[in-house]
Amino acid sequence: MEIIAKKTRRYTMVLTVLSVLLLLTFLLNVGLGSVKISLIQVFWEIKKMVFHQQAEQSVYRAIIGQIRLPRTLAAMISGSSLAVAGLLLQIFFRNPLVGPFVLGISSGATLAVGLILLAGVSFGLNTAIPFLIVLAAFSGSVLVMIVVLLISRKVKSVVTLLIIGLMAGYFCSSVTSFLMAFAEKEEVKGFIMWTMGSFSGFSWHKVTVLLLIALPILLATLLISKPLNALLMGESYAISMGVNIKATRLIIVLISSLLAGLVTAFAGPVSFVGLSVPHISKLCFGTADNKILIPGTALLGGIITGLCDLFARTVFAPIEVPISAVTSLLGAPIVIFLLLRRRNVL
Amino acid sequence: MLRRKYEWILMLVVSVLLVSGVVSAGSILELRYTNAFNIEYLENGNKIVTDGDGVDWLLVPQGQQVPTGYGNLSVIYTPIDRVLLASTTQACLLRPLEVLDSVVAVTASLDSWYIDEIKTGLQNGTVTFVGEDWAPDFEKIQEIDPDYAVVYTGSYPQTTLIEKFKELNIPYLVDNEYIESKAFGRMEWIKFLATFYNKDDVAVEFFDSALQQIEDLQGVFADREQPKVVWGSLYNGKVYVPQAGSYVAEMIALAGGDYVFNHLGVNESGSAEITLEEFYVQAIDADIFIYSSWDVLSTDDIVKQAQILAELKSMKNGNVWRYNENWYQSLDRTHLQIVELAGIFHPTLFTEKINDYLTQLKK
Questions:
Q1: Which of A108, A127, A205, A247 counts the most CB atoms within 10 A of its CB?
Q2: CB nearest B136 (choices: A127, A203, A318)
Q3: pLDDT score for B55
Q4: Which domains does chain B have, with CATH numbers?
């Protein structure tokens, strides 16, 4: 009893610390940028925005309200989404090397974007269509997800499904390579930039859509923490506990694919977050209980991606570093450090 | 008082233009090589300009009242100032208009520029580099707060920039000169940018003069045999050559050359990727080889990439040229580039050697 109470206290404490860190990351992201704005000014502007105080539109207000705020929210919610998607699939496949893009989600999105940027499929429109890339990427992800889901109904083994997902990814990557081979240099450059991911230029429209879809899905994952916990002990055990394996499998693939597809659609493929954050989360909490891990992973995903994005946009400003370069650069040493420190097996 | 004086000068300029026939109320500016934008002249120096994205703008000279009846159009008071350029070639078109001092922000860094005015501006701080166009530093842009931005759409649209500009309320003008397949179609966009500075007459005069120069050039080598020209560059074992429908192929023809890939992509602009052997077969007999990059310093650098190219006639005769770094930032000097090419293609006809845009490669 004492042990349980001690553990609960620990989980509560870690969750509280992570929540505070998330808030600090948020403030750091909103407070720091290439344009120097004092912290007092930042708070003042945010206060005016929150309380709808009438004020003349100042440069600082525009920078905070229209550039930093939407971008920070986008980076954080995307990080949470990718991390939770990764966690779900790691549990589902019982494989620590699995990330949110293992089922070909990112490759599907990349292929669809490639069709537009490399093959010039623009539906006859010779202009910049808002949301065209977003829609294409999301359609690509969803299409691959549907194919994987249809196949998942026919196969029993998760390993087979994993291989099918990998093959779907290879197939899409292969077609994308064909498109790149026939594309012009300028087209390839633009496409490669997209594949490296960025939260640059995130508008409130995009953030709103992202929040409206991602937040309910993230909350919904909490509802499947019990069957997920049962799955940790193997499918036979889960069945004996009354878990509907088929339905759970469908829900896990659906949720993780939607989350990963959504982020990829808006920011391009953001690597490493979905793979590394669940590990960091497990090492921080020292538990496999998904009731704790899901919110913890979401918080950590938001913190790490938020910090990585801050690094990406400020360190070499005005030149921005691709977000995937930063997430991998900072994420890999963190995972290694934690593993060595805790001497844990994943 | 100053404003009144300015209005008078403006009215006088417009009246002179109206009398001279360059501009007349109700007329539409004649475009010879492009139809991707439009300029319609109204009364009192007002204009309706359709940009590269088909968006109509009502241009009103500063200090004048907005005319009635155009309520649905966004108004731009001319001449414009404090401009962000999202492409280096846009700056080229502003150079002959002598309005580069209106540029306050660019999306290419100092070492990417070969236009003195912009370089100096970046060095002394009057022009700010705001990051690459795929992920610019929007904070910096907002801080600079340009009055207008010039962007492009087309095949490689600057979607990130455009979407955020809408949110930040930064008006943007779409200049799609890069889509044009005709050499002078690209250059004719000078008329589009000029109209925002009330320099329509300067642009027309400049453009016509450039065309005249090329027209005169045709007479010089009219009855001469055209040398065979091969044009391209190597990258990772692949060869990129301009297609027959590209502006480069047109420039070769205008300079009196016979492009060896005239059969490749007759109606296609841009460049094509071909195999080394395909390139070799066509290039073997070419008299002149223009290497379309500046990443080689000698013919040996080309041979290092593809040994077989040492066998080309042009390589053996030392008739190999490469781009100078300013090649792409000389859009406003297309006619001069053609004249330089003509000098290379017909050296006996041109005594004066110009090496402004191309450099002959030695071993």
A1: A108
A2: A318
A3: 94
A4: 79-179 (3.40.50.1980), 221-360 (3.40.50.1980)
